[in-house]
Amino acid sequence: MEKNSDKLRTGVRWSAIERIITQIAQLGILLILSRILGPKAYGLIGMLTIFIAISQTLVDSGFSSALIRRNKNSQKQYSTIFWFNLIVSLLIYAVIFFMSPHISAFYREKELSDILRVLSLLVIINALSIVHRARLTIMMDFKTQTKISLIAVLGSGVVSVILAKNGWGVWALVVNNLVFATISTFLYFWFCKWLPDFIFQLKFFKVTAAFSVKLMIASLLNTFFDNIYQLVIGKVFYPTQVGYFTQAKNLTLLPANTYSAIIQRVTYRYFSEIKNDRVRLRQKYEEVMRISAFIFFPLTISFSIFSNNIIVFLIGKAWEEAAKYISILSWCYVLYPIHAISLNILNVFGRSDLFLKVEIIKKIIITVCLITTYKYGISAICMGMVFYSLLATYINTIHTNRIIKTNFIALIRIISPIAFISMLSATISFVICKFFDNNIIYIFGIMISLIIYYLIYYFVDRKIVLTIWKVNK
């Protein structure tokens, strides 16, 4: 049991280091490029994001999760998945290459055709390292993944900034993605020291596909509807508006994805080891939920309140409209880690059928929200996303609660005090900043809010602070 706890702490530590350092580096590059390139360049890339994301989901097809869930896999089994990923990526690239003029015509932006043909090379490059990433995750070797991610981010960032300053425009963003993928893939091969055999084990593939296909369909639905907003906004509005929305979504998703990736990757592996002990699993599940809310809520809520001042200071007034969307979208993604952890339980127990069922229901809700709001502008679309997120929180936990014998009320009891104190701290911080009415003070508004938040919890509930300290010790 102690060994499992040690694994969890080590996994959390290195997974957190990887994501946080990588995302800080990516954020720095993002801010520099945003000042140089402006909204339209990000809008053009945003229009194509849905096609790249769906392609990469098809290439993986849920097999990496299947490998991680199995824990012990043979050389033949790893090789089978490697060749499947590569073959599918080549087929998908061919489809995208010939479809790109039609996609360009859909948006009425001629330059998108060439951009998509080059950008979609990502699909092939990333396919080469899917198995390598799965192998390192199975070994809980997040330290190596930290090195790979950081080197790739810095290398691609330097290249893209140089190109942006030399007038490459949107192509600087294209090159940034390609260089990142290329460096990452090379380093995964270098550090992992694994090469596939020329073999395809059909029996293993069929058995694994039974689990993976449902997971893939759920992931496809998730990917499509996560990116459908740029598709609709790109069709109805102009690239600049897509750029504002894309940047707002990227900046609000950055902390959400960072934390969710940390906790989801580690808990998937850890929960898989203790899944037969339902009592212990429920305890750890609730503990992770509490810690997630404690860490994530105050940061996201404060970001919402101080978004305008922060955006103007960091990337200039040209992006001020994006701040309006950030203030709304932050409330959408504040529950993102809660969603991820709940769905992780379904994957741990191999209930890809329930995972798929949940995703279908949620996507119907997204469709209704989008149809209802898009006529009223991008702000209305963002508000619809917030409504969806609140409803999805409940839907995500229905089957999870049945599996581990808990209920939604228990979750509310865990997160509601944290949400209240987070809002209280951010409000007090905003009032303090308003009193001084100084732009510099506003920039430090989030820091002031977090200090107030932790001081309140220090006197109200030290236990959760000590729990977090124990996990990271």
UniProtKB/TrEMBL annotation:
Primary residence: membrane
Cell compartment(s), UniProt: Cell membrane
Transmembrane segments: 20-38, 44-68, 80-103, 115-136, 148-164, 170-192, 204-225, 291-316, 328-349, 376-396, 408-428, 440-460
Alphabetical list of InterPro entries matching this protein: Poly_Biosynth_Transport
Signal peptide: none
Membrane topology: Multi-pass membrane protein
GO CC entries: plasma membrane
Keywords: Cell membrane, Membrane, Transmembrane, Transmembrane helix
Pfam families from the UniProt entry: Polysacc_synt_3
Cross-referenced CDD domains: MATE_tuaB_like
Source domain of life: Bacteria
Membership in a protein family: Belongs to the polysaccharide synthase family.
PANTHER family: LIPOPOLYSACCHARIDE BIOSYNTHESIS PROTEIN WZXC, PST FAMILY PREDICTED COLANIC ACID TRANSPORTER
Name this protein carries in UniProt: O-antigen repeat unit transporter Wzx
Gene that encodes the chain: wzx
